[in-house]
Amino acid sequence: MKIRAHRRGSQAGEFHHRDREHDSLYCSEGGKAFKGEIPPHRAFTLIELLVVMAVIAILAGLLLPALGRAKERAQSAGCLNHLRQLQIGFHLYADDNADQLSPSEIHAAFLDLPRWVAGTMSATNPRDLTELTNRQILIAPGPGHIGPYVPSADVFHCPGDRSRTNLLLPRGPPRVRSYSMNNYVVGADGVGFVVGGGFHYSPTAFLKWSDFNRTSPGHTWIFIDEHELTINTGAFGTQWMMGPGWKWSGHWPARRHGGRGALSFADGHGELPRWREPTTGPPVKTWEQAFESGFETGNRDYAWLWERTNGPWPFPE
Fold first, then answer.
1. Using CA of residue 214, residue 219, residue 224, residue 227, what is the dihedral sign?
2. Is the pLDDT confidence value at 219 over 50?
3. What is the pTM of this model?
Protein backbone atom coordinates (compact mmCIF):
# COMPACT_ATOMS: atom_id res chain seq x y z
CA MET A 1 0.00 0.00 0.00
CA LYS A 2 1.43 3.37 -1.01
CA ILE A 3 1.07 6.23 1.40
CA ARG A 4 0.73 9.82 0.18
CA ALA A 5 1.05 12.61 2.70
CA HIS A 6 -0.12 16.20 2.11
CA ARG A 7 0.90 19.35 3.86
CA ARG A 8 -2.15 20.79 5.49
CA GLY A 9 -3.00 24.53 5.57
CA SER A 10 -1.27 25.51 2.36
CA GLN A 11 -2.57 25.29 -1.19
CA ALA A 12 0.96 25.79 -2.60
CA GLY A 13 2.59 23.36 -0.22
CA GLU A 14 5.08 20.79 -1.53
CA PHE A 15 6.43 17.61 -0.11
CA HIS A 16 8.43 14.58 -1.19
CA HIS A 17 7.83 10.98 -0.30
CA ARG A 18 9.92 8.02 -1.45
CA ASP A 19 8.23 4.88 -2.63
CA ARG A 20 10.41 2.27 -0.92
CA GLU A 21 9.29 -0.48 -3.25
CA HIS A 22 10.04 1.23 -6.56
CA ASP A 23 12.50 3.91 -5.37
CA SER A 24 10.30 6.60 -7.00
CA LEU A 25 9.55 10.15 -6.00
CA TYR A 26 5.98 11.40 -5.30
CA CYS A 27 5.32 15.11 -5.29
CA SER A 28 2.24 17.09 -4.46
CA GLU A 29 1.97 20.60 -5.68
CA GLY A 30 -1.23 22.67 -5.80
CA GLY A 31 -3.22 19.66 -4.67
CA LYS A 32 -2.10 17.55 -7.63
CA ALA A 33 0.15 14.60 -7.12
CA PHE A 34 2.54 13.11 -9.68
CA LYS A 35 5.26 10.47 -9.75
CA GLY A 36 8.77 10.91 -11.18
CA GLU A 37 11.99 8.82 -11.20
CA ILE A 38 15.14 9.94 -9.29
CA PRO A 39 17.49 11.73 -11.69
CA PRO A 40 20.69 9.79 -12.50
CA HIS A 41 23.96 10.57 -10.64
CA ARG A 42 26.24 13.09 -12.27
CA ALA A 43 29.27 11.49 -14.03
CA PHE A 44 32.89 12.44 -13.34
CA THR A 45 34.34 15.20 -15.47
CA LEU A 46 37.61 14.77 -17.36
CA ILE A 47 39.43 17.02 -14.91
CA GLU A 48 38.20 14.98 -11.96
CA LEU A 49 39.40 11.76 -13.61
CA LEU A 50 42.81 13.29 -14.29
CA VAL A 51 43.09 14.35 -10.66
CA VAL A 52 42.27 10.82 -9.48
CA MET A 53 44.84 9.37 -11.87
CA ALA A 54 47.47 11.83 -10.64
CA VAL A 55 46.80 10.87 -7.02
CA ILE A 56 47.11 7.17 -7.89
CA ALA A 57 50.41 7.84 -9.70
CA ILE A 58 51.79 9.73 -6.70
CA LEU A 59 50.80 6.92 -4.33
CA ALA A 60 52.37 4.34 -6.64
CA GLY A 61 55.56 6.39 -6.77
CA LEU A 62 55.67 6.38 -2.98
CA LEU A 63 54.78 2.72 -2.48
CA LEU A 64 56.75 0.98 -5.25
CA PRO A 65 60.23 1.89 -3.91
CA ALA A 66 59.15 0.70 -0.46
CA LEU A 67 57.93 -2.57 -1.95
CA GLY A 68 61.20 -2.92 -3.86
CA ARG A 69 63.21 -2.42 -0.69
CA ALA A 70 61.07 -4.95 1.14
CA LYS A 71 61.66 -7.50 -1.64
CA GLU A 72 65.39 -6.78 -1.54
CA ARG A 73 65.50 -7.32 2.23
CA ALA A 74 63.60 -10.59 1.86
CA GLN A 75 66.05 -11.82 -0.79
CA SER A 76 69.01 -10.81 1.38
CA ALA A 77 67.58 -12.73 4.32
CA GLY A 78 66.96 -15.74 2.07
CA CYS A 79 70.51 -15.59 0.73
CA LEU A 80 72.00 -15.53 4.25
CA ASN A 81 69.78 -18.45 5.22
CA HIS A 82 71.01 -20.48 2.23
CA LEU A 83 74.62 -19.69 3.11
CA ARG A 84 73.93 -20.77 6.67
CA GLN A 85 72.56 -24.12 5.42
CA LEU A 86 75.69 -24.64 3.32
CA GLN A 87 77.80 -23.76 6.33
CA ILE A 88 75.99 -26.36 8.44
CA GLY A 89 76.63 -28.96 5.74
CA PHE A 90 80.29 -27.95 5.70
CA HIS A 91 80.48 -28.50 9.48
CA LEU A 92 78.68 -31.85 9.34
CA TYR A 93 81.00 -33.12 6.62
CA ALA A 94 84.04 -32.34 8.80
CA ASP A 95 82.39 -34.04 11.78
CA ASP A 96 81.90 -37.21 9.75
CA ASN A 97 85.39 -37.18 8.23
CA ALA A 98 87.76 -36.92 11.18
CA ASP A 99 88.00 -33.11 11.03
CA GLN A 100 88.97 -33.13 7.34
CA LEU A 101 87.47 -30.26 5.33
CA SER A 102 85.51 -30.53 2.11
CA PRO A 103 87.79 -29.14 -0.65
CA SER A 104 86.96 -26.07 -2.68
CA GLU A 105 88.76 -27.63 -5.65
CA ILE A 106 91.86 -29.77 -6.10
CA HIS A 107 92.13 -29.97 -9.88
CA ALA A 108 89.22 -29.10 -12.15
CA ALA A 109 90.44 -31.39 -14.93
CA PHE A 110 90.04 -34.51 -12.80
CA LEU A 111 86.34 -35.03 -12.16
CA ASP A 112 86.81 -37.90 -9.71
CA LEU A 113 88.83 -35.84 -7.20
CA PRO A 114 87.20 -34.57 -4.01
CA ARG A 115 85.40 -31.22 -4.16
CA TRP A 116 82.55 -29.65 -2.19
CA VAL A 117 80.22 -29.57 -5.21
CA ALA A 118 80.19 -31.01 -8.70
CA GLY A 119 79.52 -29.10 -11.90
CA THR A 120 80.66 -25.84 -13.49
CA MET A 121 78.43 -22.78 -13.82
CA SER A 122 80.28 -20.85 -16.53
CA ALA A 123 77.80 -19.46 -19.06
CA THR A 124 80.59 -18.32 -21.41
CA ASN A 125 82.83 -21.40 -21.44
CA PRO A 126 80.84 -24.32 -20.05
CA ARG A 127 82.35 -27.78 -19.71
CA ASP A 128 78.90 -29.27 -20.04
CA LEU A 129 75.80 -27.13 -20.66
CA THR A 130 73.61 -29.57 -18.77
CA GLU A 131 75.52 -28.87 -15.55
CA LEU A 132 74.22 -25.30 -15.48
CA THR A 133 70.67 -26.51 -14.87
CA ASN A 134 71.21 -29.90 -13.22
CA ARG A 135 70.00 -29.69 -9.61
CA GLN A 136 70.73 -33.33 -8.89
CA ILE A 137 74.51 -33.02 -9.22
CA LEU A 138 74.43 -30.47 -6.38
CA ILE A 139 73.07 -32.92 -3.82
CA ALA A 140 74.41 -36.21 -5.21
CA PRO A 141 76.86 -38.15 -3.03
CA GLY A 142 80.48 -38.01 -4.08
CA PRO A 143 84.02 -37.47 -2.77
CA GLY A 144 84.06 -34.27 -0.73
CA HIS A 145 80.46 -33.38 -1.50
CA ILE A 146 78.40 -31.57 1.14
CA GLY A 147 75.17 -31.95 -0.87
CA PRO A 148 73.95 -34.95 1.20
CA TYR A 149 74.20 -32.75 4.31
CA VAL A 150 71.90 -29.92 3.12
CA PRO A 151 68.07 -29.97 3.00
CA SER A 152 67.64 -29.38 -0.76
CA ALA A 153 69.30 -28.12 -3.93
CA ASP A 154 67.61 -24.75 -3.39
CA VAL A 155 70.24 -23.69 -0.86
CA PHE A 156 72.91 -23.56 -3.58
CA HIS A 157 71.10 -20.66 -5.29
CA CYS A 158 70.78 -17.04 -4.15
CA PRO A 159 67.13 -15.81 -4.32
CA GLY A 160 68.38 -12.59 -5.92
CA ASP A 161 70.33 -14.37 -8.69
CA ARG A 162 68.32 -14.03 -11.90
CA SER A 163 71.13 -15.06 -14.26
CA ARG A 164 70.28 -17.47 -17.05
CA THR A 165 72.20 -19.98 -19.09
CA ASN A 166 72.51 -17.24 -21.74
CA LEU A 167 73.85 -14.05 -20.17
CA LEU A 168 73.66 -11.89 -23.26
CA LEU A 169 69.95 -11.93 -24.07
CA PRO A 170 69.17 -13.06 -21.28
CA ARG A 171 67.11 -16.16 -21.83
CA GLY A 172 67.04 -19.81 -21.00
CA PRO A 173 66.50 -21.53 -17.66
CA PRO A 174 68.14 -20.16 -14.52
CA ARG A 175 71.45 -21.56 -13.36
CA VAL A 176 71.26 -23.72 -10.28
CA ARG A 177 74.24 -22.49 -8.25
CA SER A 178 75.27 -18.99 -7.13
CA TYR A 179 77.86 -19.74 -4.45
CA SER A 180 81.55 -20.60 -4.47
CA MET A 181 84.03 -21.58 -1.76
CA ASN A 182 87.19 -19.87 -0.54
CA ASN A 183 89.94 -21.48 -2.64
CA TYR A 184 92.23 -21.66 0.42
CA VAL A 185 90.03 -24.42 1.80
CA VAL A 186 92.29 -27.37 0.78
CA GLY A 187 93.09 -26.02 -2.70
CA ALA A 188 95.07 -22.91 -1.68
CA ASP A 189 98.14 -22.10 -3.80
CA GLY A 190 98.16 -25.41 -5.60
CA VAL A 191 97.99 -29.12 -4.91
CA GLY A 192 100.75 -31.43 -6.04
CA PHE A 193 100.46 -35.11 -6.90
CA VAL A 194 102.72 -37.43 -4.95
CA VAL A 195 104.36 -40.32 -6.76
CA GLY A 196 102.67 -43.50 -5.66
CA GLY A 197 99.43 -41.74 -4.76
CA GLY A 198 98.16 -38.93 -2.59
CA PHE A 199 98.60 -35.18 -2.69
CA HIS A 200 101.04 -32.57 -1.53
CA TYR A 201 99.13 -29.56 -0.17
CA SER A 202 100.19 -25.94 0.08
CA PRO A 203 101.16 -24.80 3.60
CA THR A 204 98.64 -21.95 3.19
CA ALA A 205 95.73 -24.38 2.86
CA PHE A 206 93.06 -25.06 5.48
CA LEU A 207 93.01 -28.86 5.55
CA LYS A 208 91.45 -29.65 8.91
CA TRP A 209 89.02 -27.76 11.09
CA SER A 210 91.76 -27.09 13.61
CA ASP A 211 93.68 -25.11 10.94
CA PHE A 212 91.23 -22.24 11.39
CA ASN A 213 92.85 -21.66 14.78
CA ARG A 214 95.83 -19.98 13.12
CA THR A 215 93.52 -17.09 12.25
CA SER A 216 89.93 -17.12 13.58
CA PRO A 217 86.81 -19.06 12.44
CA GLY A 218 84.79 -15.87 12.85
CA HIS A 219 87.23 -13.98 10.63
CA THR A 220 87.61 -16.53 7.82
CA TRP A 221 85.00 -16.68 5.09
CA ILE A 222 84.01 -20.01 3.52
CA PHE A 223 81.20 -19.39 0.99
CA ILE A 224 80.55 -16.32 -1.16
CA ASP A 225 77.82 -15.22 -3.55
CA GLU A 226 79.73 -14.97 -6.84
CA HIS A 227 79.18 -12.74 -9.90
CA GLU A 228 77.23 -14.44 -12.69
CA LEU A 229 80.01 -13.84 -15.26
CA THR A 230 82.93 -15.22 -13.24
CA ILE A 231 81.35 -18.19 -11.45
CA ASN A 232 82.73 -21.45 -12.77
CA THR A 233 83.92 -24.36 -10.62
CA GLY A 234 83.16 -24.42 -6.93
CA ALA A 235 86.27 -22.38 -6.00
CA PHE A 236 86.49 -18.59 -5.70
CA GLY A 237 90.12 -17.82 -6.52
CA THR A 238 92.23 -15.18 -4.79
CA GLN A 239 96.01 -14.82 -4.69
CA TRP A 240 96.34 -14.25 -0.99
CA MET A 241 100.12 -14.54 -0.94
CA MET A 242 100.33 -11.42 -3.15
CA GLY A 243 99.08 -9.27 -0.30
CA PRO A 244 96.10 -6.94 0.22
CA GLY A 245 97.14 -4.53 -2.55
CA TRP A 246 96.70 -7.15 -5.28
CA LYS A 247 93.66 -7.45 -7.56
CA TRP A 248 90.70 -9.69 -8.34
CA SER A 249 92.06 -12.80 -10.04
CA GLY A 250 89.34 -13.63 -12.52
CA HIS A 251 86.61 -13.85 -9.86
CA TRP A 252 84.23 -11.16 -8.63
CA PRO A 253 81.80 -11.24 -5.75
CA ALA A 254 78.19 -10.54 -6.66
CA ARG A 255 76.43 -7.36 -5.57
CA ARG A 256 72.79 -8.45 -5.88
CA HIS A 257 71.58 -7.02 -2.58
CA GLY A 258 71.52 -3.27 -3.09
CA GLY A 259 75.25 -3.08 -3.82
CA ARG A 260 76.09 -5.62 -1.13
CA GLY A 261 77.74 -9.00 -1.32
CA ALA A 262 76.97 -12.07 0.78
CA LEU A 263 79.38 -14.36 2.64
CA SER A 264 79.37 -17.01 5.35
CA PHE A 265 82.18 -17.60 7.81
CA ALA A 266 83.69 -20.69 9.43
CA ASP A 267 81.95 -20.01 12.74
CA GLY A 268 78.56 -20.08 10.97
CA HIS A 269 77.64 -16.39 10.82
CA GLY A 270 76.90 -14.49 7.60
CA GLU A 271 77.55 -10.93 6.45
CA LEU A 272 76.29 -8.56 3.75
CA PRO A 273 79.25 -6.22 3.12
CA ARG A 274 78.59 -3.11 1.05
CA TRP A 275 81.11 -2.97 -1.79
CA ARG A 276 82.75 0.43 -2.10
CA GLU A 277 84.33 0.18 -5.56
CA PRO A 278 82.20 0.38 -8.73
CA THR A 279 84.63 -2.03 -10.41
CA THR A 280 83.80 -4.76 -7.87
CA GLY A 281 81.32 -7.02 -9.65
CA PRO A 282 80.08 -4.47 -12.22
CA PRO A 283 77.01 -5.25 -14.39
CA VAL A 284 78.91 -6.73 -17.35
CA LYS A 285 77.97 -9.77 -19.40
CA THR A 286 81.11 -10.54 -21.44
CA TRP A 287 84.80 -10.93 -20.60
CA GLU A 288 85.61 -8.13 -23.06
CA GLN A 289 83.45 -5.80 -20.98
CA ALA A 290 85.01 -7.18 -17.81
CA PHE A 291 88.56 -6.36 -18.87
CA GLU A 292 87.46 -2.90 -19.99
CA SER A 293 85.96 -2.39 -16.54
CA GLY A 294 89.28 -3.36 -15.05
CA PHE A 295 90.82 -5.82 -12.59
CA GLU A 296 93.03 -3.06 -11.19
CA THR A 297 95.22 -3.29 -8.12
CA GLY A 298 94.48 -1.30 -4.99
CA ASN A 299 90.80 -2.28 -4.83
CA ARG A 300 89.45 -1.58 -1.32
CA ASP A 301 86.90 -4.39 -1.55
CA TYR A 302 89.60 -6.88 -2.51
CA ALA A 303 91.63 -5.75 0.51
CA TRP A 304 88.59 -6.27 2.75
CA LEU A 305 88.05 -9.82 1.43
CA TRP A 306 91.78 -10.60 1.46
CA GLU A 307 91.95 -9.79 5.17
CA ARG A 308 89.24 -12.43 5.82
CA THR A 309 90.59 -15.09 3.44
CA ASN A 310 93.57 -16.46 5.35
CA GLY A 311 96.13 -15.57 7.98
CA PRO A 312 98.36 -14.64 9.61
CA TRP A 313 100.26 -12.20 7.42
CA PRO A 314 103.05 -12.42 6.50
CA PHE A 315 102.65 -16.16 6.30
CA PRO A 316 105.39 -18.05 8.18
CA GLU A 317 107.80 -19.88 5.95
1. negative
2. yes
3. 0.79
